[in-house]
């Protein structure tokens, strides 16, 4: 990735063109580190994403949907109070750094015009979003509060004077005079590291590209420099590179990468593609971290219980020995003398000698009865332990299926998974203000030949899909013997290609999605049954056939 000062400059140009003069109509804070401003401009709504995420900090227009919390966070409420219905005057980059300043004008409660600034500082784990009053330069609020114990250079708290991050002793590549630039570009070693250490806002990737261009024009480095910082951005080409499984994004083509990129219409469209999966995984993690920890601990506890039950079951294997000794002792009662502690007899099952321990305080009949009692205890225990073993294993399988679904979940899927766990008595329902959220439906895809394919997002949907939505002659698929989603082909006689496509989807939506070869069972829905009282998503089936496929998340 390369969201450096060079990319920030290009993004500010794009945002100014799209948003300057627009009115801020809505403000949302869907996640802890992210704010979305809905800006009405030239008859269209634009969603401006501001992110202070430590790894994915950025500013961009976005088309990716998001879920708002039932109760807006305090920072969101502050922004609404001060900025809603404000007009964007301009968007600026500070120096060549990853700091963007959005200037708003808005009439306050007294009708006076106020100048406000929303500042986005993209600085890794120190990233922040700060609202200040332009006249007083005082901070109204910020998404992350930073006190003196955390930063001795500046306070980032409501009421404090805003102070920019400390400047490094580097030159602004866009403002340096030609004489100084000429001397700097004639350094003995003109390397990417040298350029990074000398000029503001250059990632190593950008410095490497600049070095490549300068070395390509050794007799006209000044032209190469101005082309890179001025001419190129007048006709930028948002580029997405995939090189050796690594992804890069750039505002223009980087010829030093020596790879043909995918070109996008806008920088924002490029970032939507680059960040969608990465940011969504992080959003899911934010929403489900505590839940995942709880479920992981539950599995550890259940596996410990399973180990203990298996140990108890091993002990019950003595029941046949207890029964045999009781029967032999009954047969040889006449040989038992008062006070004997053991009796050696011939085992008529094996014709081998066998020593039977006795309690000298008990009569011969009482000793025999003691062995029969132990036999019955082990026998009854074995039945009960077998039930507990089955129930415990089913619970482990169920929780593993939920964890598997969380790994694949989109942010909008997490409430659905939580709802399932509430209905299964794993979680308690929290009282939430606001309207209940509309939960997402099944994943709906279309095979190459046009056949509809449905996939459950969680176990409640799996049950509904298989037992209520699918026709009895439709084809049901599931990864063999492992947690995964139910997949339905809405056809009674699908083509081999459609079967293969649906099986690959079933493999992907399972615990073994990272494997290369996954067995997937398929059968008509009428052969799939849900046992009474079984956990969500659990079914039994027969007459199935099996395909071996490579997992795929698309057709």
Automatic annotation (TrEMBL):
Residues 445-533 form the NFACT RNA-binding domain. The keyword tRNA-binding applies. One of its GO terms (molecular function) is tRNA binding. Residues 285-319 form a coiled coil. One of its GO terms (cellular component) is RQC complex. Gene3D superfamilies: fibrinogen binding protein from staphylococcus aureus domain like, ibrinogen binding protein from staphylococcus aureus domain. It comes from the Bacteria. GO terms for biological process: rescue of stalled ribosome. Pfam families: NFACT-R_1, NFACT_N. Keywords: Coiled coil, Protein biosynthesis, RNA-binding, rRNA-binding, tRNA-binding. The keyword Electron transport does not apply. InterPro entries: NFACT_RNA-bd (IPR008532), RQC_Subunit_NEMF (IPR051608), RqcH_bacterial (IPR043682). Belongs to the NEMF family. PANTHER family: NUCLEAR EXPORT MEDIATOR FACTOR NEMF (PTHR15239), RIBOSOME QUALITY CONTROL COMPLEX SUBUNIT NEMF (PTHR15239:SF6). Key component of the ribosome quality control system (RQC), a ribosome-associated complex that mediates the extraction of incompletely synthesized nascent chains from stalled ribosomes and their subsequent degradation. RqcH recruits Ala-charged tRNA, and with RqcP directs the elongation of stalled nascent chains on 50S ribosomal subunits, leading to non-templated C-terminal alanine extensions (Ala tail). The Ala tail promotes nascent chain degradation. May add between 1 and at least 8 Ala residues. Binds to stalled 50S ribosomal subunits. Associates with stalled 50S ribosomal subunits. Binds to RqcP. This is Rqc2 homolog RqcH.
């Amino acid at each position: 990735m390369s969201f450096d000062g060079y990319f920030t400059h290009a993004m500010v140009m794009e945002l100014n063109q799209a948003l300057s003069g627009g009115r801020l109509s809505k403000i949302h804070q869907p996640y802890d580190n992210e704010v979305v401003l809905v800006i009405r401009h030239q008859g269209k709504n634009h969603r401006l994403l501001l992110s202070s995420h430590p790894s994915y900090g950025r500013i961009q227009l976005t088309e990716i949907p998001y879920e708002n919390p039932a109760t807006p966070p305090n920072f969101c409420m502050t922004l609404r109070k001060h900025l809603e219905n404000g007009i964007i005057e301009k968007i600026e980059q500070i120096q060549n750094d990853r700091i963007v300043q959005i200037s708003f004008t808005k009439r306050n409660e007294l009708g006076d015009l106020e100048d406000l600034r929303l500042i986005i500082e993209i600085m890794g784990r120190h990233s922040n979003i700060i609202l200040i009053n332009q006249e007083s330069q005082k901070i109204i609020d910020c998404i992350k509060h930073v006190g003196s114990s955390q930063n001795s250079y500046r306070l980032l708290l409501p009421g404090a004077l805003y102070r920019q991050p400390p400047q490094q002793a580097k030159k602004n590549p866009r403002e340096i005079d030609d004489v100084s630039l000429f001397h700097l570009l004639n350094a003995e070693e003109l390397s990417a590291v040298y350029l990074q250490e000398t000029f503001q806002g250059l990632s190593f990737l950008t410095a490497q590209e600049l070095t490549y261009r300068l070395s390509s024009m050794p007799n006209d480095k000044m032209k190469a420099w101005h082309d890179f910082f001025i001419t190129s951005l007048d006709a930028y080409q948002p580029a997405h590179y995939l090189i050796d499984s690594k992804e890069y994004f750039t505002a223009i083509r980087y010829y030093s990468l020596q790879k043909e990129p995918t070109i996008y219409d806008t920088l924002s469209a490029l970032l939507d593609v680059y960040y969608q999966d990465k940011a969504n995984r992080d959003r899911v993690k934010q929403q489900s971290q505590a839940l995942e920890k709880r479920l992981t601990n539950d599995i550890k506890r259940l596996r410990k219980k399973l180990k203990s039950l298996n140990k108890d079951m091993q002990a019950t294997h003595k029941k046949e020995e207890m029964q045999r000794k009781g029967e032999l002792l009954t047969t040889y009662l006449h040989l038992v003398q008062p006070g004997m502690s053991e009796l050696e007899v011939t085992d008529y099952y094996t014709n081998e000698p066998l020593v039977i321990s006795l309690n000298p305080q008990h009569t011969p009949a009482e000793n025999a009865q003691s062995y029969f009692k132990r036999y019955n205890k082990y026998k009854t225990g074995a039945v009960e332990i077998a039930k507990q073993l089955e129930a415990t294993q089913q619970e482990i399988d169920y929780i593993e299926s939920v964890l598997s679904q969380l790994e694949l979940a989109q942010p909008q899927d997490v409430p659905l998974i939580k709802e399932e766990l509430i209905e299964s008595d794993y979680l308690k329902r929290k009282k939430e203000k606001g309207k209940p959220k509309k939960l997402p439906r099944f994943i709906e895809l279309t095979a190459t030949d046009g056949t509809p394919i449905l996939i459950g997002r969680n176990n409640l949907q799996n049950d509904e899909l298989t037992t209520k939505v699918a026709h009895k002659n439709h084809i049901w698929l599931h990864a063999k013997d492992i947690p995964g989603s139910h997949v339905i082909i809405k056809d009674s006689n699908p083509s081999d290609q459609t079967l293969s496509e649906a099986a690959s989807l079933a493999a992907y939506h399972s615990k073994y999605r990272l494997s290369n070869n996954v067995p997937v069972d398929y059968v008509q829905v009428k052969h799939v049954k849900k046992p009474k009282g079984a956990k969500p998503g659990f079914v039994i089936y027969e007459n199935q056939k099996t395909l071996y496929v490579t997992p795929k998340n698309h057709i």
